[in-house]
Design a protein that fits this description.
14 helices, 19% strand, single chain
Length: 394
């Protein structure tokens, strides 16, 4: 295999370099890691506007850039379809990130192209989606399980969910990773009018399932001597957003959406506590990133967060419980120090990028076609049901 070109095509993201979310960040890290190991990596990237697809190279990674004039979910569906059709022209191993348009993976299956799918979280269970969207996600959840040659779960509870659809042997658990942050400048903190070590951070979309209202309500029940810094956009015509703003005391500071990675890292590193209110999902990137920055964590009490943070977090359930946690935690420097140390230990045990990316590389190598990426070898079923290339000498 050493004489062959190991090739991977990555589908399912908006593209790299990362500018949108966790999957894009992961795709960037994985692509750069594999290129450094001698792989050929092709990433499909969504572009705003009209026109024909075009190609370029970024940091050694080939990019297939597909313009899409439609916006929102419709644009994403069109982009995913075009990317899948293009990838289906080749015999290369594919990695699809997310199952929201898993129905399109049927084309790769029909072409005999090995395709691994990272199944993300249980998207159809999220409160924010309407009935039609929930049905669409639920169907694609099932289809992804059937159509993918192998599935990746980023959390043991996600694997348990997937095992209700397929055999455990078809699923590999690999969590999300993050960078270790050991230092950060003070200037971004001062620029926001904050005092290092005297504020808490909440970094999440302002949605009910992220517990933003409960956090703000609980924090605002009494003076704390700390500021609660909430990142994210809050819109005037959104009833939930307005309820959060109305519940805030003078110690709550809304700083808007901040996408600059250096500023976000500085906020995490210099905050006294990171508050993580996510109620659903697998290994959430923002929680892992907080642990990597050495943040003491206060997290919503659920099965997902408890596995990720372990004893590196204190857990709450609801506004009054959050207030109680604040009463106890903010007056105990020793407890904060213990949480910081436990969180860092957990992070280095499971969530560093080098370890996560090596796990992915080992898994991907199992499904590489046996011939060069430009050839399309016929595929046969293994005993476990995965599609692998048939040996031409057999």
């Amino acid at each position: 295999m050493s004489s062959l070109v190991r090739t991977l095509r990555i589908l399912g993201t908006r593209g790299i370099p990362a500018a949108h979310g966790g999957f894009e960040t992961f795709a960037e890290h994985l692509a750069l890691h594999l290129v450094a190991q001698g792989w050929r990596v092709v990433v499909y990237c969504q572009e705003d506007g009209a026109g024909s697809l075009f190609e370029d190279v970024w940091e050694g990674v080939e990019r297939i850039r597909i313009p899409v004039s439609q916006t929102g979910s419709k644009g994403t569906v069109i982009f995913d379809w075009k990317a899948t059709v293009h990838a289906a022209k080749f015999g290369d191993l594919c990695l699809t990130l997310g199952y929201n348009t898993a129905i399109f993976c049927g084309l790769l299956r029909l072409k005999g192209i090995p395709n691994l799918i990272n199944m993300d979280g249980i998207e159809w269970s999220r409160i924010k989606w309407g009935r039609c969207a929930k049905i669409w996600f639920w169907l694609n959840d099932w289809l992804g399980c059937w159509l993918g040659n192998h599935l990746v779960a980023d959390h043991p509870q996600i694997k348990a969910h997937l095992q209700s659809r397929v055999a455990a042997s078809k699923i590999t658990t690999i969590p999300y990773g993050a960078d270790s942050v050991t230092a950060a400048p003070l200037e971004p903190v001062h620029a926001l009018g904050l005092e290092p070590g005297r504020f808490l951070t909440v970094i999440a979309r302002a949605e009910p399932e992220n517990s933003i209202l409960e956090i703000v309500q609980g924090f605002s029940l009494k003076p704390r001597g700390y500021q609660l810094v909430v990142l994210g956009n809050f819109e005037q015509n959104n009833a939930y957003h307005q309820s959060v703003l109305s519940a805030a005391s003078g110690e709550v500071k809304f700083v808007g959406a901040i996408y600059d990675k250096a500023i976000v890292q500085a906020l995490r590193f210099h905050s006294a506590v990171c508050v993580h209110g996510h109620q659903v999902g697998g290994t959430n990137p923002s929680l892992v990133e907080a642990m990597g920055a050495g943040n003491p964590v206060v997290a919503h009490d659920n099965r997902f967060n408890r596995w990720v943070a372990g004893n590196g977090a204190v857990y709450f359930y609801g506004a009054e419980d959050f207030s109680r946690v604040m009463d106890e935690l903010l007056v105990s420097p020793s407890t904060l120090a213990d949480l910081r140390q436990h969180g860092l230990s957990r992070f280095h045990e499971l969530f560093t990028w080098p370890d996560v990316l090596m796990q992915y590389e080992r898994l991907l190598e199992r499904f590489l076609p046996m011939a060069n990426s430009s050839a399309e070898a016929p595929l046969e079923k293994t005993e476990k049901g995965s599609l692998l290339p048939k040996n031409k000498n057999q």
